[in-house]
């Protein structure tokens, strides 16, 4: 899983991205100094609870932050090209074309009053001047690639005539239409049955490997990340608190928050303990803080058992192992291997 | 779909029947038209003869039964005043009213939807606020006053447009219309604008609130994420969703425009159905009033049917429900 990141130009390199919203409660920093990169064909899992800034990171990458929100700092480079500060006209040539996005609930995102063919053809016509026939042909083949049988029939359907899994496949097919460099998937399988979720995860992984498309998979579900991602970033209160390979983050978690998340997943409790009975699920004490009212320093310190007075300062990223970064003064000790 | 239309027709006949009963009884209750129709100096014998000739000597249910039997044959009775068939009198005036209502509705829709969209897209801008302020004025100013002001300004002060009447008309397929000549338009535009003002305000507000709501929806964000132009997002994704409530209201308001443009027709001396209704009521011309109200019922049912069919075009989810019904 070691991508030689030094030699390959990353598809997307995000540095110190900071997105703020002016609200009545004051200025909220939804994305705070976030840096990561994704290589071609690589899958990055972005994990966090609701309100941790995952989705806002995604919208920032697509230039979809609208006033009163604003990207105030950092850079977003797609294949070396700086996207931040592009005029709207240029952003439009990126969205859906070089960076495609898949949303959580396809019932809400596919327009209910437009047929699937309309919604697919317009996605092509927004970026390429081709005949309607050619666009329909591309749509048909994209539906075939995501495993939809009888694509012609589906093309003439309206979203409500398809099942949830089918709708999400259509959304994935739309994302594939313009062969993007990067796909951002925002909890796309959360609303689906577990069996369909597994199928779609597998298909996405295969499609991205084959085409060299980089994939950012946003989720709160660590089990999904374990099966899908090459690398993982854990977000808390707008910051990435831990970042590394899937093995490093899930098995050698260094940040107390990551550890807490891992202990609170059912998968961890399912592993049989001594007497064959499941373990009791652990919880992280307290609630995620409101972004409008963050404690100074480490945002997790009020819920953290390892916190000390040092944590009132913001910890810098430190690296317990190559490729593994953690933003904590008191990282968990690494088990010797 | 044919089943649906058939069911609507049966429903329509039921409504017509109930409506005819109510209207007939209501008009009967207002009073006898004899006192107005017959010379005050007439003898009791004269009165009785007149009553017998018009069938007014019979009890209500007999009168209604006679009316009903003839109505099924398509005859809604003769006007007491004019002596000619009531329905014919109304239909004669109908093109004038239809034309006026249609032009007014077109003004309201063609201006209202773009203005409402704009106000919905830029709710905080000066233009958006001005549009909303204007629509509040349009809502609250009484129609008759606005009509008088329009006449004051454009006919009296500026002398650009005639103050009333219909002007010359051209015959097309047996209908006499004003919209075919420039002179006809000069007569039409003031009353049409007067009628349109309230509907325009309504459509602006409806479109604006619909737009603001639609913009919050995920499908709009998704459409943007696909890289669609703003024109496409607003013109297709937003508009097609908000058209559904707008079509409903436009349909209902159109019926109201045709049926009850009485005030505007009076102010501008527009020879339409509204004026006829007003005259018939003051003269207690029962057959015309009854025929008029029944015609309006038919009109409303027809418009509602069209609106329902339009729903199916606009909203695929409605189509499904209906076929599975």
Q: Characterize the overall form of chain A.
A: globular
Number of helices of chain A: 12
Number of domains of chain A: 2
CATH superfamily of the largest domain in chain B: MetI-like
Number of contiguous helices of chain B: 14
The largest β sheet of chain B comes out as: 2 strands, antiparallel
Strand content of chain A: 15-25%
CATH architecture of the largest domain in chain A: 3-Layer(aba) Sandwich
Structural class per helix/strand content of chain B?
mainly alpha
The helix-and-strand class of chain A reads alpha/beta
Q: Determine the mean pLDDT of chain B.
A: 83
Overall geometric form of chain B: globular
**N-to-C span of chain A:** 18 Å
By CATH, the architecture of the largest domain in chain B is named Orthogonal Bundle
| Overall pLDDT confidence of chain A | 85
CATH class category name of the largest domain in chain B: Mainly Alpha
Give me some keywords for this one.
heterodimer, A: 337 residues, alpha/beta, Rossmann fold, 2 domains, eight-stranded mixed β-sheet, 12 helices, 31% helix, 23% strand, globular, disordered N terminus, B: 325 residues, mainly alpha, MetI-like fold, two-stranded antiparallel sheet, 14 helices
Tell me what you see in this structure.
Chain A is globular. In chain A, the strands form two sheets. Chain A has an eight-stranded mixed β-sheet with strand order 6-7-8-3-9-10-12-11, sandwiched between helices. Chain A has a four-stranded antiparallel β-sheet with strand order 2-1-4-5. Chain A is α/β, with parallel strands linked by helices and 337 residues long. The longest helix of chain A has 18 residues, at 194-211. Chain A is 31% helix and 23% strand. Chain B is mainly α and 325 residues long. Chain B has two domains: 2-72, no CATH class; 93-324, Orthogonal Bundle (MetI-like fold). Chain B contains 14 helices and two strands; from the N terminus they run αααααααββααααααα. The termini of chain B are close together. The A-B interface holds A 62, 64, 92-97, 100-101, 103, 105, 108-115, 122-123, 126-127, 158, 160-161, 174 and B 217-219, 221-229, 232, 236-237, 240-241, 314-317, 320.
């Amino acid at each position: 899983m070691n991508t030689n990141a030094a030699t390959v130009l990353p598809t997307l390199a995000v540095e110190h991205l900071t997105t703020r919203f002016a609200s009545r409660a004051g200025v909220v920093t939804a994305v705070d100094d976030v840096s990561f990169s994704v290589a071609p064909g690589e899958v990055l899992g972005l994990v966090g609870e609701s309100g941790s800034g995952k989705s806002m990171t995604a919208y920032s990458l697509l230039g979809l932050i609208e006033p009163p929100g604003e990207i105030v700092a950092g850079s977003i480079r797609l294949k070396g090209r700086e996207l931040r500060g592009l005029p709207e006209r240029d952003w439009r040539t990126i969205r859906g074309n070089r960076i495609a996005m898949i949303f959580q609930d396809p019932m809400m995102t596919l327009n209910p009053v437009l047929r699937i063919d309309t919604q697919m053809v317009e996605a092509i016509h927004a970026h390429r001047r081709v005949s309607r026939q050619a666009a329909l042909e591309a749509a048909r083949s994209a539906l075939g690639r995501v495993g939809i049988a009888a694509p012609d029939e589906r093309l003439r359907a309206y979203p409500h005539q398809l099942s949830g899994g089918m709708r999400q496949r259509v959304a994935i097919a739309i994302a594939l239409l313009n062969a993007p460099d990067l796909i951002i998937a925002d909890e796309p399988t959360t609303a689906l049955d577990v069996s369909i979720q597994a199928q779609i995860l597998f298909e996405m992984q295969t499609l991205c490997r084959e085409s060299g498309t980089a994939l950012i998979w946003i989720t709160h579900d660590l089990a999904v990340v374990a099966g899908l991602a090459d690398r993982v970033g854990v977000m808390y209160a707008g910051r990435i608190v831990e970042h590394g390979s899937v093995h490093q983050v899930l098995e050698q978690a260094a940040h107390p928050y990551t550890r807490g998340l891992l202990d609170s997943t059912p998968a961890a409790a399912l592993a049989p303990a001594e007497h064959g009975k499941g373990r009791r699920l652990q919880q992280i004490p307290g609630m995620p803080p409101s972004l409008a009212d963050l404690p100074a320093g480490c945002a997790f310190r009020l819920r953290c058992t390892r916190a000390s007075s040092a944590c009132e300062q913001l910890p810098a990223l430190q690296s317990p192992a190559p490729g593994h970064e953690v933003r904590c003064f008191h990282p968990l000790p690494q088990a010797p291997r | 779909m044919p089943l649906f239309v058939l069911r609507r027709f049966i429903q329509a006949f039921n409504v017509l029947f109930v409506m005819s009963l109510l209207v007939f009884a209501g008009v009967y209750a207002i009073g006898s038209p004899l006192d107005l129709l017959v010379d005050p100096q007439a003898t009791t014998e004269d009165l009785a003869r007149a009553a017998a000739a018009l069938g007014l000597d019979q009890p209500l249910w007999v009168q209604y039964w006679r009316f009903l039997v003839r109505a099924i044959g398509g005859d809604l009775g003769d006007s007491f005043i004019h002596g000619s068939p009531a329905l014919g009198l109304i239909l004669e005036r109908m093109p004038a009213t239809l034309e006026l209502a249609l032009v007014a509705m077109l003004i309201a829709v063609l201006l209202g939807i773009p203005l409402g969209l704009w106000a919905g897209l830029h709710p905080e801008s000066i233009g958006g606020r001005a549009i909303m302020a204007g629509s509040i004025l349009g809502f609250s100013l009484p129609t008759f006053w606005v009509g008088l002001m329009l006449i004051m300004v454009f006919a009296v002060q500026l002398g650009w447009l005639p103050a009333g009447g219909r002007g010359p008309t051209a015959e097309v397929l047996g209908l006499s219309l004003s919209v075919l000549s420039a002179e006809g338009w000069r007569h039409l535009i003031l009353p049409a604008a007067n009628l349109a003002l309230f509907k325009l305000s309504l459509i602006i507000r409806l479109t604006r609130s619909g737009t603001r709501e639609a913009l919050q929806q995920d499908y709009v964000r998704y459409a943007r994420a696909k890289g669609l132009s703003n024109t496409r997002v607003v013109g297709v994704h937003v508009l097609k969703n908000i058209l559904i409530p707008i079509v409903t209201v436009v349909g209902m308001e159109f019926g109201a425009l045709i049926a009850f443009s009485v005030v505007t027709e009076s102010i501008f001396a527009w020879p339409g159905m509204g004026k006829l209704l007003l005259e018939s009521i003051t003269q207690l011309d029962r057959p015309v009033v009854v025929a008029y109200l029944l015609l309006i019922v038919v009109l409303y049912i027809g418009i509602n049917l069209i609106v329902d069919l339009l729903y199916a075009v606009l909203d695929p989810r409605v189509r499904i429900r209906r076929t599975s019904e």
